[in-house]
Amino acid sequence: MLIAHAAHTLTTIAYFLPVVAFLAWLVVTQVRERRRGRG
Amino acid sequence: MIQLAHGIVARADLPIPEWLFGWAAAMVLVLSFVALAVLWPEPKLERERRRPLPGGLGRVLGSRPVEILCGAIGAVLLGVVVYAGLRGTQTVTANFAPTFVYVIFWLGLVPASVLFGDVFRAFNPWRAIGRAVAWIARAVSRGELPAPLAYPERLGNWPAAAGIFAFATLELVASNGDRPENVAIATLVYSAATFIAMALYGVEAWTARGEAFSVYFNLFSRLSPVETRDGVVGLRRPLSGLAALKPMAGTAPLLAVMIGSVTFDGAAEAPIWTGIAPDVADFFQGLGLSPQRALEAAFLIGLVGAILLVYGFYRLGVIGARSVGGGFSAERLSRAFVHSLVPIALAYVAAHYLTLLLFQGQAISFLASDPLGDGDDLFGTADTQIDYGLIGANATWYWQVGFVVTGHVLGLTLAHDRALALYDRAKLGVRSQYWMLAVMVGFTSLALWLLSQANV
C-alpha cells in the first residue's frame, strides 16, 4: 500500500517536473543577468 | 455532479507511460517556441484581413430572415428544455433537458463555434426574445422608448464570469444539478436575470459584454476563420479574431473560471481530492450543515480553489514577463496576453469532455423523439442506443493529448505575436515570452495529469 502510494506520488511529480525545471532555469537565468547588469 | 455517460474505460497497452506523454508535450512546446522565435519575426495577426463568402452566400447566411429563423429555433429549444424539465421524467438519462443543456449546448456549441464562427449569436434564445420584445415595444409605443443605461466600464465581463461560475456550480457542486426539474428552474432564473439586464442596458450591449453564454461562445468563435460582420458572413485569417479581442474588466477572471472549472472537474476524480474532500465536508458538518450541504460546501471550496490556482498561475506568468522590462504594468500585460488563454480553455474542454460529447451526445437522437421520457416517438428514433464502441480508450488518450498540445501551441503563437506587437525590441518581446512558455508548459502538464486521474 505504501509502495503504491509512493509510486502514485512519484508519477504525479513526474508530470510536473518539466514546468518546475523550466521555472528553475528561468529564475537562475534572470538572476545571473541581473548580476551581470550590476557588475 | 453529472452522472451522464463519460464512457471512460481503462487504458492499456500505451507504448510509453502516460507521464512521458507530458514530457513529450512539453518538448513540443519548447521546440514550437524556438521555431516561432526564428520563423515568426514580425506580428501577423494584428492586421485585419477579411473577405466575404463567394457568390452572395455570405449575405444569405448573415441575412435578417436567417437570423430570425435561427433565433426562433433557439427560443423553441429553450421552451422544450423548460417544459421537459418541469413536466417530464426526473430520470436524468431519460429526460431531454439535462443532456441538451450539459452536452449538446454546453459542449457541442464549442466545436461548432470554433469551426463555423459565432453560431450561438444567431441561435441565442435570450437575444432573439429580447430583440422581439424590443421591436414590439417600439411598435406599440409609437414614439421613442427611453434609452437604455450606459453599460458601466467597470462591469466589463464580470457578469459573464459570474454566470459561467454559477453554471459550473450547478454542474459540479450541486448534488442534484443534473435533475431535470433543477435544470429547468435554473434556466428560468437565468432567463429572468438576463431579460432584466437587457431591459436595463440594452439587448446588444448586454449580449456583447455581460450575457455569460454569449461571451463564452464568442471567445471560442474567435479561433474560427469564419466571421459575421454587418450581416455578411466571411472568412478571416485563423486566430486573428482573438488578436482583435478587446479585453476588459473581468476578462481574465472569466478565462480563469473557464479553465479552472474544467480543472476541478478533472481533479475531483483524483486521489488528491478524494482524500481530502471528506475531511473538508466533516468540517462543514461540524458547523451544523447537513451531510449533503457539507459535501456541496467542500466541492464549492474545491471549485473556487481550482479557479484561483489557474488565475494565480497566469498572474505569475504576467509578473515574470513584467520583470524582463519594457515599462508595462502588470494589468496592461494581463490584458495584452489574456487572449492566449482561449486556446488553452478550448484544449481543456475538448480533451476532458471528448468522450462525454461523443457518447452521451448520441443520446439526443432518442431523447429528441421522447423528450419527456414517457414513451413518445416523435421522430421514429426513440429506440436508438448509444454506441460505446465509437472510440476506444487508447484512441481517446491520443486525441486528448493532441488537443492539449495543439491548444497550447496556438496559445503560444498568439502570445508570441502579441509580444512582437507590444515591445519595441523583438529580443525583449521574446524574453518576456519565456514566462508565457512556462505558463503554457504548466497548463499542459496540469491538463495531462488531470486526464490521467480518470484512469487511477
Helix-strand category of chain A? mainly alpha
Tally of alpha and pi helices of chain B: 20
Alpha-carbon distance between the termini of chain B? 19 Å
Quaternary class: heterodimer
Which range best describes the helical content of chain A: under 10%, 10-25%, 25-40%, 40-55%, 55-70% or over 70%?
over 70%
The radius of gyration of chain B is 23 Å
When the domains of chain B are counted, the total is 1
Largest sheet of chain B, in brief, is: 3 strands, antiparallel
Strand content of chain B: under 5%
Can you count the helices of chain A? 1
Tell me the distance between the termini of chain A.
54 Å
Strand ordering within the main sheet of chain B: 1-3-2
Low-confidence stretches of chain B: none
| Rg for CA atoms of chain A | 17 Å
Task: Please outline what is shown here.
The complex is a heterodimer of chains A (39) and B (456). Chain A has 39 residues and is mostly helical.
Features:
heterodimer; A: 95% helix; B: 456 residues; mainly alpha
Topology at a glance:
The complex is a heterodimer of chains A (39) and B (456).
Chain A: H1 2-38
Chain B: H1 18-39, E1 50-52, H2 57-61, H3 64-87, H4 96-116, H5 119-123, H6 125-141, H7 158-172, H8 180-201, H9 203-209, H10 212-221, E2 226-229, E3 232-236, H11 240-243, H12 251-267, H13 271-274, H14 277-286, H15 291-323, H16 330-337, H17 342-360, H18 364-369, H19 393-422, H20 426-453
Antiparallel strand pairs in B: 1-3, 2-3
